[in-house]
From TrEMBL:
It comes from Lentzea waywayandensis. SUPFAM superfamilies: NTF2-like, Sigma2 domain of RNA polymerase sigma factors, Sigma3 and sigma4 domains of RNA polymerase sigma factors. This is RNA polymerase sigma-70 factor, ECF subfamily. Gene3D superfamilies: 1.10.1740.10, 3.10.450.50, Winged helix-like DNA-binding domain superfamily/Winged helix DNA-binding domain (1.10.10.10). It comes from the Bacteria. GO terms for molecular function: DNA binding; sigma factor activity. PANTHER family: ECF RNA POLYMERASE SIGMA FACTOR SIGJ, SIGMA 19 FACTOR. CDD domains: Sigma70_r4.
């Protein structure tokens, strides 16, 4: 009996990074992903493991189906969320559970776009693009045909391609973030506007816990004016350091009470097209 439990624990431990990676990409929440992984562990302990021919496939199926259900209930919960909802950032320089496999489908902007997919489309896309599962295996996991699975992934790819410009290289993203931070701290209106694409969008996730924009802010000129106006209060006394959030460079702001903001940008050849402000304290645990 002890040997069987040891084997079960060993199989689960080997699969755990992938299970967390699937669940996090499906939910955009570290806490929800960890809860789902724990639920799969309980199910694995109670399962008839002697009848399981492929433990990895069994566990991947379990986490994906649980994540599909969680995605459906999460959408209902977010109807009461105050202001824009952004995925919870993870420190991919320090968290092997997320960065252990492919870094695809991990950037915050991509996870935001995945929110517009159906849970089944999202699952098929995550399994294919982030973990390179064969279509046949994805079809078994999401309980549809292989032809339908290919269509799910194709629709998801098209949606992301339609909604997102080709991003700049990561080194260029960091340079633009550094320039943005310098201009924002100085309240330099002209410099900010020059950095932005004309249709730039700013998203602030606070869930009402601190004063922040309760809706997306659009446009280079108006956003530059707003950010330059925030400068004296928002950046005052902050200890700023660069971190890696979901595979891209971000800026962490700290005061005596700890981290109060993680900010990053996405950019294309047209300039910075999104500014993401994570200021909900519940979503900053990875950067405390």
């Amino acid at each position: 009996m002890t040997q069987q439990l040891d084997e079960a624990e060993s199989a689960f431990a080997a699969a755990r990074p992938r299970l967390f990676g699937i669940a996090y990409r499906m939910t955009g929440s570290v806490a929800d992903a960890e809860d789902l992984v724990q639920e799969v562990w309980v199910r694995w302990q109670l399962a008839d493991r002697a009848a399981v021919l492929n433990p990895e496939a069994y566990l991947a199926t379990a986490i994906t189906r649980l994540a599909i259900n969680e995605s459906q209930t999460a959408r209902a919960r977010r109807e009461t969320y105050v202001g824009p909802w952004l995925p919870e950032p993870v420190d991919t320089s320090a968290d092997p559970q997320v960065g252990a496999e492919q870094g695809a489908v991990l950037e915050l902007a991509v996870l935001m776009l995945l929110e517009k997919l159906t849970p089944t489309e999202r699952a098929a896309y995550v399994l294919r693009e982030a973990f390179d599962y064969p279509y046949r295996e994805i079809a078994e996991i999401v309980q549809t045909s292989e032809v339908a699975t290919r269509q799910l992934v194709s629709r998801a790819r098209k949606h992301l391609a339609d909604e997102r410009r080709v991003p700049v290289e990561r080194a260029d993203q960091r340079k633009l973030l550094e320039a943005f931070v310098a201009a924002a701290q100085a309240g330099d209106l002209a410099a900010l506007e020059k950095l932005f694409a004309q249709d730039v969008v700013s998203w602030s996730d606070s869930n009402g816990s601190i004063r922040a924009a309760g809706r997306p802010l659009f446009g280079a000129a108006s956003l530059a004016k707003i950010i330059s106006g925030w400068a004296p209060s928002f950046w005052a006394g902050a200890e700023a350091s660069f971190v890696e959030a979901n595979g891209l460079t971000a800026i962490r702001l700290r005061k005596d009470s700890g981290t109060y903001a993680v900010i990053t940008v996405t950019a294309s050849d047209e300039g910075i097209d999104q500014v993401l402000w994570l200021v909900n304290p519940e979503k900053l645990a990875a950067f405390q």
